[in-house]
Protein 1
Amino acid sequence: MTDLPTSSYPALLVGLPVLMATISLFFKSRGNAVAGLIGCLLTGGLGIVSFAEVTQRGTLIHILGGWKPPLGILLRMDSLAALFIGITAVVGILISLYAWWYFSSRKVSDGKFTLFWSLWLFLWAGLNGLFLSNDLFNLYVTIEVITITAVALAVLSGRTVALFAGLRYLLAAITGSMAYLLGVALLYGSTGTLDLGLMGQALEPGATATFSLIIITLGLMIKKAAFPFHFWLPPAHSSALAPVSAILSALVVKGAFYIMLRLWTEVFGVSLSYAAGQLIGFTGAVAVIWGAWQALLQTNLKMLVAYSSISQMGYLLMAFPLLILAPGVASGSADWLAPAWTGMAYQVMAHAFAKSSLFLSAGIIVFALGHDRIESLRDLVAWKPMTAMAIGIAGVSLIGLPPSGGFMAKWMLLKGIFLSGQWWWAPAVLLGSLLTAGYVFMLLRLAFAPAREKIAFRPVPHILQVCALLLALGSFLIVLPSENLIQFLGGTESFGTGIESIMEGGVHGNE
Amino acid sequence: METHQIYSLTSVVLFAIGIGGVIMAKHFLKKIIATIIMGGGVFLCFVSFAQRDALTFADPVPHALVITGIVVAVTSAAFALSLARRIHQLTGEKTFPDEK
Amino acid sequence: MSVVIDILMAILLIYLALRCMLAPELSKTIFTFFAFGLTLALAWIRLEAVDVAIAEAAIASGFMGVLLLDSLRDFSYALSKNPKNLELPENFTIKESNKSLLLPRLALGIGFVIFLLISMEATWKTPEGGGLTAVSEELLPQSGVEHPVTAVLLNFRAYDTWLEIGVILMGLLAIFAAGGVKNYRKPSMTAVDPLLRQVILFFIPVLFLFGAFLLYFGKTGPGGAFQAAVLWGSIGILFHLGGWPIFAMIPRKLRQFLLTMGLGSFLILGFLLMAAGGAMFEYPPAYAGILILIAETLAAISIAVALTAIYVYLTK
């Protein structure tokens, strides 16, 4: 692993946002925002450039301090990490632009909003660090960076609801990361390394490995608000400021999912079993249906969008059972791995774009009306056609209608499900889409309905709507390079260890 | 039974007490203290392995990880404390509304 | 003999943790938590982890304890001020709520015991991974310091330590975000017991020297940036307790500089090393010792200021 080409991009991807965040701390209100926006644009640009670099040169590594693992820490940017960094960069730039106009047009004299930029840059550094990290303990530090900054952003509005939601979020997240860390301690005790690749080779099946798998998975499921642990997400995401909600739902929850994916595919190969995959898939399926059903019952737009996140994140877990081979299946014949894998990647991208767009649109409506009751969407097409369009387009992608990115995700997932013969997941995918269609059409029906009375609303800067619309369009545009993206994810020359094994043969289940 | 075994068994008991505390305790401060006890358990687990793997000195890597971990855990606990105090200051509440 | 001591210590730890969680009064919880922290520090000395013991006693028990004590005062003060919080709702009956909770509580209890047994089995059966002692021993001479824990913290895994310095700064920003900044007024010099002030004035140079000692000798023995930082941070806290609001007296720019200095200098050092052709935090072996000492000193000052700031903003 250490003979891959080295590059300074991985270190810069973490260092630059921290540097810009630190610089922006020295300025007061206006200067702070300028420095913050410049920092966001630079970080985003660097993310896109490094993504391009990985498509050219393949996996890049950076050996921190020159100390090779197991003693040192290795940053690795393979195609999966590059994909996540790329999405974060594109979505992050658009959210930052939105935030710039959102905050400057609110004319808040309140000094607290200036904290947004430094916290967001630190959060971005944490996300990049998480995607690049190849070390179990370093992953813990990065998820703590993300937790602290994400909760701080969530309570920035200062409302009591947000404070309660933030404290609940923080306590859940701390519990989750402590559970994760206990698993790491046991794994370190049994293998004597923290490096993902080395640990995957050294780990022996047994009670300790199984317990670590369980406790790490539980901890991460709390952090990603998977089904039985989703209680903290809707209040926290819905009570935050609009750009913050978009960041939290589009990017932050993906962090814990990413660690889970990495660990399951690279470390826990030996202790995974067919049943474990089925169980995770089941919680995913329940989340898909339950989340969508709850979304249908909401009367506030932001709550609806937050519940929809629980539902959409459930699809990601449903790909897990497909990645584990049933006993007696030869790895060569597992032709469903590639579709399942692509479906998962597309779901991550489509959800990041569509969900951030929806939260930004909800922010525009709150901005104009002062509240977000769904009933107030009446006649949206007439008074905010661009926002109505953004909601429509993002909604279509969430449902999974062609030719959206969401369609690509669900289609690939269904293809994987049928090829693998695990047909029992298909009803959940379809029912989830149906319920999603229910709440999206409920919003659109209101948007086209004539207004009952003349609504007085505050003027909203045009550019806010453009940002939301661009993100919504993004969830369609990701389909265009689908051929190249699938090749990029599956291309052998640009791969690290884990996904390669998944694409070639899958993780072998014991028994 | 050796020293490291005693402490590694103790560590998971502390972790379990902490996790029970986070779920069952109602007062904000108790929940926050429970997270620190949970963390104490995890760190004890690391350090007991360090003592087991000692050669001329105990394994320094877990020691360093634990020092990092303590600082991170205390920082998040301090943040939680500030949120709890702010809530208390604004509403007079000491618990979550649905956990009374 | 030593096994008996360890078993007694383990029992004491578990007892204190349980007491801490089950104590009916909040003040008892917090005082038991102090005792728990100190016992844990003793356990770490038994496990030959002196660095961790100092960090535990100073940060997790000492610093956190001060914050908790102050919060305790805050919570109990407001309680006596608003007696309406003590009143129970009219339809509140204790018996009924107990009955309906019995089944879930039983299930929770059983789940708890099962979890405990599984986790104990898992720890008991942990295979011997061997750890990284041999590798660190082999590479220690190249690290520029003689104490293995300091070598891991500031050289082998400097990236983690750098992020952790960042976490403290982020924690401070997060406390601002939770509602600290707007309400913070510059406190004036308050009247404090002159005897207390004398004691504080006596302790401050002692703490400073002891911190400097820990920092400098961190390269050869237990101690280092974090332990020193907490001692220096406690100087700031003592000043505030004695009625000298030094934090508010420092000009804003200087305050910001002191707070970000540790994170920033470490990062710039990393970037410079990268510009020189190496990896981030790849010190040239000849200069490793001095570079580590500089980075460590700046980090210690920053952390000390940040801890003082956390105390000041949290307890205002």
Protein 2
Amino acid sequence: MFTLTVNGQSHLVDVPEQMPLLWVLRDHLNLVGTKYGCGVAQCGACTVHVGGNPTRSCQLTIGDVGTRAVVTIEGIGDAPNGAKIQKAWLEASVPQCGYCQAGQIMSATALLNSTPQPDDSDIDAAMAGNLCRCGTYIRVRQAIKNAAAKPA
Amino acid sequence: MANIQSNFAQSDAYLSALIREVHATPVAPVIGRRGFFKLAGAGAAGLVLGFQLGDAAFAAENDAAADGAIQTMNAFIRVASNNTITIYSKCPEIGQGIKTSFGVIIADELDADWNHVVMEQADINPKVYGSQGAGGSTSIPRAWDQLRQAGAGAKAMLIAAAAKQWEVDPRQITARDSVLTHAASGKSATYGSLAAEAAKMPVPDAKGLKLKTRAEYRLIGKGFHGVDDPKVVTGQPLFGIDVQRPGMVYATYTKCPAAGGKVRSFNVDEIKAERGVIDAFALTGTGLMAEAMPGVAIIAKDTWSAFQAQKKLKVDWDLSEASQDSTSRFSEEAKKIAMSFPQKADENIGDVDKAFAAAAKTVEAYYEYPFAAHAPLEPMNTTAHWHDGIVEMWVPTQQPDRGLPSIAKAAGLPEDKIVLHQTRVGGGFGRRLVNDYACEAAAISRKVDGPVKLQWTREDDFAHDFYRPAGYHQFKGAIDGNGRLDAWREHFITFTADGKKEASGANLTDNIKFSIKAPNLRRGTTMFPLRIPTGAWRAPGDNAQVFAEQCFMHEMSSVAGRDHVEFLLEAVNRDVPELAPKDKSVNFSPKRVSDVIKMCADKAGWGKTAPKGSGLGLAWCYSHAGHVAQAVELSVDANKRIKIERIVVVLDVGPIIDMTGSQAQAQGASTDALSTAMGLKINIENGRIKELNYNAYPVLRMPFAPMTIDAYFIQSDNPPTGMGEPAFPALAAALGNAIFAATGERVRRLPLRDLGYSLAI
């Protein structure tokens, strides 16, 4: 039995300690916004924030989460940078199929949290782990810049 | 052996039929031929319209809304008394933006207020909706007339209701933003307030409806945000993988890593004892790749438990019918036989031998490209629930309507016992034209008490795809004394599943055949037998063949010492009657090709002097009814690192429905094409796929993505055609031609990373 804080809410989950956070969120907490894409931290679709850091939830076991707070795509809009990024995503019409976008938004929000005015190389570094099979990178980059340009 | 061959061939025939269908010129939509029908059983709440046959669900819905709060105008449109208009999108949303575009088309003819339109996914009912697939960039051209008639028909009924109420001439009533107005009397009313009466009006004859001209569009052609975007960016459930049902259990399905293998036995007791596992059993399936192959299902209480148990699975595979294909062997063999032109030519126009003998110059070259996986980011999945004698399913598929018979067969039930719900699809690229995973889920559901979600792993997805086939082209071309393209000989080496014709997606496309207008032309084909299933991969055939054809075209113009753009324009405008499309409905137009080439050359700054190490390449294609030219400007350093300076794409796909979405498709397809040309390759060894995850299959990432891709559209009055595919094929050829311009080195083999090239950050 584990106590997990997700998006400010505390949950008790009865799962094996080796279960990755991704599947706890999806199958046990019904938070399906965080996506399964590769299972080996190659695609970034499962990115969430753990203790404020962007983390591939397919690689972090529930046993290793500890007391750190988890924020997912369902909750990121409650934080100013998350809301800003989501709005920028809508304004730039970033999504195509949309499947990778939760992970892209989580990585982009973490980038703005650490680097409020990212340049292209900051964006490259922060977003390199998030695959988009549809090729929305141009709009992802633009949306991050647009969000950064908005007042906090 | 005959039986095995027949199984492979049958499966391949299904896929080939799909590809032919999605390649086919749009057929007249159902509504155009049959007109509107009144539905039987429409209750007192109002008249319900269908387009072909009655649909009880719609009638029942109006009955249920006894207070008349919501009126179903037809299978596409519902109008609520609060003036909210719900529009049903009949085709799958796979990222091509169809749910937005379909709404825009209907809303424009309906003169609806877009801000109060809600888009919903229609369930699968081909009897009501006609074609409900998403493939071959055909959703728009197939639905164009049908959707406009749906909007115009509903509007005519609203106007008729107002005219009756106000006792005025309906021709004097104008519609705008979901409000009808009669200027002379000053009367006006919202659609919502008129809906109940409108539903009782006579159904207009589809043929009598006056549709808008381009100048009258209020919505079509503008830019729109994707209708599902707010849900996407907040992580709301949308995709097949997101489906949750009460009491749901989770399944994996493990098939033989070498295509065609069968289960002899597996460690069933050990698997059943794994933590979280509920059941494990083998299925024989239908034996067809495109349906359900033999395998082992593991049912568990969550996805991770199913995945963990799958890792412990030990299956004794019967490999007697399994693939032993090897891609390295195909490559070697193809190279060996390339120079031996087949005795029998598929096409033979003029006299190539005479032309070669008389030629001012001749050129020979050999091109090669590999197998490729689709690898959409949402791994295959389906949720299925066998209850009350039916199987209810939630399927992320591109081809729900065509999938129905296969799914029913796999479930062992008649088609009318299968209820399919469409979900948003996390990437199609042609992969989900095949419903194999849905067939598996249907078969599994029959053995499970309650709803079950079949979830493939990423490794399952790579190992059991319907791959873009490799291909090998040996060319010889001739330039005449005037520097013109005079002869083209091509030995195309490809694959066959049935030993008779090319495997699905492995034929030289008609698009290519229309496009190379050499007065002397000879083509022949050699086919290697193949057991690995192939299929439709974004712009099937064109996606790699255009690379070979248009790069060789550049070799010809270079050897001729001609300006490439001039050479291309001259060639495409040659009159070679044998190469003109036989089917008059094919919209291939040398004029439209010329226009996109000229505009692309202009926008890309064709003819300007490039600094050393830099180059500009241009290529064109006719693909999926779109006329396209693409240009790539790049530089290459001493370590073969390519810096993409600029990509220009010019398309003529008729009028644009959603400019924002069309720009996205042009940019996305170009990016996908760059990604694929640079790095993507599937190797097969002894029937087994070597690349099983993204670490071995380097889809382009942010640091290497172009900073801009400039897309331009030539908007004509021709009927609109699709945007999902046309911006893919010419990019790799433009890239190859640009590398030659920059370095003098010809790239004749994909992916370019195999030749030492990489993209610079």
